[in-house]
C-alpha cells in the first residue's frame, strides 16, 4: 500500500477522503465506498497501488476511442475498486471486491511492459482508474518521460484538484456520461451528474482528447428528449466530440432485457442532429462504427468489429478528399 493524497483529518483518527465528490468519512480500519482507500491508524492509504487484475494488449477501438490513433493496439491494464454504485456494472467482479489473483507492479515495471509489447501507450481501464489515483499519476508521469502515452476509461467522478494533476500527463479519456436525467444518476449511479459534466468540460479545455460513452438501458436512460439535450450540451463544447451509444446487456443486479438495436440506431439519429461523430456499440459488425467526413461524406475509417481500415485520412487527421479536419489523432 502507498500513502494516499487528498484527505482531511476530522479528529479521533477519522479521515475524510477528498479524491472524489463522495468525501467518504472513513474510521480507522475501514475503507471508503470505493473499497480501495483505507484508514490505517489515522493515515489514508491506497490499498490497490500497483495491483493489477487485468493486463492485455487491446485494439484502441475497444476502449472505445475511435478518434485516437485508429487501428492501433495499446497495453491495457485494470486494478480493482470503483467509486460508483451502478446496478448494471459490466465489470463487477473487479469493481465490487478485491479478487484473489493479483499481479503487483510498480510504475517503472509497467512502462517496461509497455515497451516490451511495442505499445505506444498505456490504457487504464476495466475498473475505475480514478480510485487508483496515486498509481495512475505515478505511472503516467513515468510513461511520459519515455514518450509513452497514458489514457483512461473513466466514469469522470473526481474532484477538481486531482483532476488538474491528471490532465497534465493523461493524453486521452473516454468518459462515461451514463445518462442525462439527474434522477437516473442519483437513483442508479449514486452521484450527481454535474460532477461528470465538470470532468468532461475541464478535460476538454485542458487539451485532453475526449470521447464520451453512454450505455443505453431500456426504460431508464433511452429517452429521445434526454438524448437531444445531452447531444446539445456536448455540442456546446464541440460538435466534433465523438459520442458512443452502447447497447446494454443484463449484468450484475440489473435484469432489464437487452436494449433493442433499433433503439440505439434511433438515438444515434437524434444525436447526429447536433454532433458530427456518433457511433453505435455492442451491436455487432456494421457500418455504425464507420467514420465519415461531416463535410463531404467520404468514408475516412472503416470498422467491422475490431477490424479497422484507415481509408481517406492524411497524416494530419484531415479528410484527404476535401481537406476538412476530421478531429482524429493519427
Model description:
By secondary structure, the protein is an alpha/beta fold. 25% of the residues lie in helices and 25% in strands. The chain has eight helices and 19 strands. The protein is globular. The protein starts with a strand and ends in a 20-residue tail after the last strand.
The end-to-end distance, rounded to whole angstroms, is 38 Å
Total separate domains: 3
Q: What structural class do the secondary elements suggest?
A: alpha/beta
Name the CATH superfamily classification of the largest domain.
Aldolase class I
Q: Uncertain runs with pLDDT below 50, 5 residues or more?
A: none
CATH architecture of the largest domain: Alpha-Beta Barrel
| Major sheet | 8 strands, mixed
Shape: globular
The overall average pLDDT, rounded, is: 97
List keywords for this structure.
single chain; 330 residues; alpha/beta; TIM Barrel; 3 domains; eight-stranded mixed beta sheet; three-stranded antiparallel beta sheet; 8 helices; 19 strands
Give me a quick take on this structure.
The protein has 330 residues and is an alpha/beta fold. It has helices spanning 92-95, 107-116, 133-145, 160-166, 182-189, 193-205, 224-237, 261-272, and strands at 2-3, 7-11, 14-17, 25-26, 37-40, 43-46, 51-52, 54-59, 73-78, 103-104, 121-124, 149-154, 172-176, 209-216, 243-247, 278-281, 291-292, 299-304, 307-310.
Per-chain topology:
Elements: E1 2-3, E2 7-11, E3 14-17, E4 25-26, E5 37-40, E6 43-46, E7 51-52, E8 54-59, E9 73-78, H1 92-95, E10 103-104, H2 107-116, E11 121-124, H3 133-145, E12 149-154, H4 160-166, E13 172-176, H5 182-189, H6 193-205, E14 209-216, H7 224-237, E15 243-247, H8 261-272, E16 278-281, E17 291-292, E18 299-304, E19 307-310
Parallel strand pairs: 9-11, 11-12, 12-13, 13-14, 14-15, 15-16
Antiparallel strand pairs: 1-6, 2-3, 3-4, 5-6, 7-10, 8-9, 17-18, 18-19
Helix pairs in contact: 2-3, 7-8
Amino acid at each position: 500500500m502507498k500513502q494516499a493524497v487528498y484527505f482531511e483529518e476530522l479528529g479521533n483518527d477519522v479521515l475524510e477522503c477528498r479524491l472524489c465528490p463522495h468525501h467518504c468519512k472513513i474510521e480507522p480500519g475501514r475503507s471508503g465506498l470505493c473499497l480501495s482507500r483505507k484508514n490505517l491508524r489515522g493515515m489514508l492509504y491506497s490499498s490497490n497501488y500497483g495491483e493489477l487484475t487485468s493486463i492485455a494488449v487491446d485494439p484502441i477501438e475497444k476502449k472505445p476511442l475511435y478518434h485516437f490513433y485508429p487501428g492501433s493496439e495499446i497495453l491495457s491494464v485494470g486494478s480493482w475498486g470503483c467509486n460508483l454504485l451502478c446496478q448494471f456494472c459490466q465489470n463487477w467482479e473487479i469493481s465490487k471486491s478485491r479478487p484473489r489473483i493479483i499481479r503487483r507492479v510498480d510504475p517503472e515495471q509497467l512502462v517496461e511492459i509497455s515497451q516490451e509489447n511495442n505499445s505506444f501507450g498505456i490504457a487504464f481501464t476495466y475498473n475505475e482508474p480514478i480510485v487508483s489515483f496515486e498509481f495512475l499519476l505515478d505511472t503516467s508521469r513515468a510513461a511520459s518521460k519515455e514518450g509513452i502515452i497514458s489514457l483512461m476509461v473513466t466514469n469522470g467522478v473526481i474532484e477538481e484538484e486531482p483532476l488538474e494533476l491528471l490532465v497534465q500527463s493523461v493524453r486521452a479519456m473516454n468518459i462515461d456520461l451514463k445518462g442525462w436525467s439527474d434522477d437516473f444518476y442519483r437513483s442508479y449511479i449514486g452521484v450527481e451528474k454535474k460532477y461528470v459534466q465538470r470532468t468532461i468540460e475541464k478535460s476538454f479545455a485542458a487539451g485532453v482528447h475526449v470521447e464520451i460513452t453512454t450505455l443505453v438501458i431500456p426504460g431508464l436512460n433511452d429517452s429521445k428528449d434526454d438524448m437531444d439535450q445531452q447531444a446539445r450540451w456536448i455540442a456546446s463544447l464541440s460538435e466534433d466530440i465523438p459520442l458512443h451509444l452502447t447497447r446494454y446487456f443484463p449484468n450484475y443486479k440489473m435484469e432489464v432485457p437487452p436494449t433493442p438495436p433499433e433503439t440505439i440506431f434511433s438515438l444515434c439519429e437524434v444525436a447526429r442532429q447536433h454532433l458530427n461523430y456518433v457511433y453505435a456499440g455492442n451491436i455487432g459488425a456494421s457500418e455504425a462504427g464507420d467514420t465519415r467526413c461531416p463535410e463531404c461524406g467520404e468514408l475516412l475509417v472503416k470498422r467491422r468489429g475490431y477490424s479497422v481500415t484507415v481509408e481517406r485520412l492524411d497524416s494530419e487527421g484531415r479528410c484527404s478528399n476535401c481537406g476538412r479536419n476530421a478531429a482524429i489523432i493519427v
